Amino acid sequence: MRVLAPSFLFFACSMPSLTAQTVRIVPDHFPTIDAAIQAAAPGDVVHVRTQPTPYPPFTIDRPVAIVGSAIDGQAPTVGVAAGAAITVNLQPGQRASVTRIDAAPTSGATLTKAVVANGGHLTLEDCRFLAGHDPAGNTGLAGVDVTDTDLVLLFTRIEGGTAAAALRATTSRVSLVSSRCFGANPNGAGVVVQDSTLHGNDAWLLGGENFLNAAGGPALVVGGASQVWLTDSTVRSGMGSPAGSAIVNSTATPVELRATVPTLALSFGGATPPPVVVGPTVVNPNLLRLRWSEQLYRRGTLRLGQPWFVHTTGPANTPVLLAFSFAPSATAALVTRQPALLPGDVAAMFLLLTDPSGTASFGGSVPNTAALVGAGLWAQSIAGTGLPFEASPFAGAVVRPY
After folding, report:
1. Number of neighbours of residue 250 by Cβ within 10 angstroms
2. Contact between residue 273 and residue 366 where contact means Cβ atoms under 8 Å apart
3. Comma-separated ranges of CATH 2.20.130 domains in the chain
4. Where in the chain is the domain with CATH 2.160.20?
5. What is the arithmetic mean of pLDDT over 231-236?
6. pLDDT digits (tens, 9 = 90+) for 27-39
7. What's the Cα-to-Cα distance from 393 to each of 153, 161, 176, rounded to whole Å?
8. Domain 292-397's class?
9. What is the pTM (predicted TM-score) of this model?
10. Looking at the domain that runs over 21-283, which CATH code has it been given?
11. What is d(CA 73, CA 382) in angstroms, rounded to the nearest whole number?
């Protein structure tokens, strides 16, 4: 079933809470991203132009939107020699986003991270991140490392450098949509969650490959008081002697899967393959998924006036509530099993009915108001016959100025 809304008049009640913000351009107005952030007021947009040389690392310590421009598919790159390329320190309720910015270690750099985040609500959209080399292989290095953070990863690719995990989340809530997490060779994990929730849709979690006569990396490691839900995703271990397990879940809570089959990579030299899954998993056909019409790794834009569609899938012939937000501040599991939009952040809700294939769609055009630049459109679907309801991964797209 498809419901098309050609305009967004139904969001008018929420628009007064958004105000147009200043766009600060790097390097036209400021030589570095960090300088532009330090001059920015909460809600401002820092537009970063592509240049031949990498930008230096920067810190986000206030609610701002960092938006890169792409030329021939190349986005602005941040080079890091030590520490993190992007450091994010936000207070609870503050939100920031990084869109179309890449980060990688400089030549010879070791133990570097692309993103380190603590607190607040952070969106990483249409980015390419690479962690640095870990010579010892035992430091717990990760390309993106978040703590106490609401993290939304969209259309983003993360790779460990050497012996590093792609993504590690500690006491955080992660929504992973149409993104790829590649654990580093020789045995890096794709994703590690500790005391966190991970809600993925159309995600790839791949363990690192080991060609050094040792075990390959796991795709997903789950520990502490964590919960994981994955739909339409690829979860595959890395090759090795033997291969790694696809999922290593040390908790008593099953990893819930829909249209997701964990798989083992090749074990070399006659090594006995390990179990595909260590720890509990369960198939849950009631899990919801949600996808935007934007293309994966698009390096494009979601601009004012641009048309879009959201597609959600769940049980067939079932009512689904579709909630929209312009500026989410956090998520919580109030009436849902998975983290969901806070009631105060919801701009509008619509009741749809899935078709016999279980799909419902909704679309329209981005409202032509400058207040949305740097904010964006966010959606989540909710369904179920009783409390707590099922919620899809939380996803959206940042509206860009250019």
Report:
1. 12
2. no
3. 292-397
4. 21-283
5. 97
6. 999 999 999 999 9
7. 10, 28, 7
8. mainly beta
9. 0.92
10. 2.160.20
11. 35
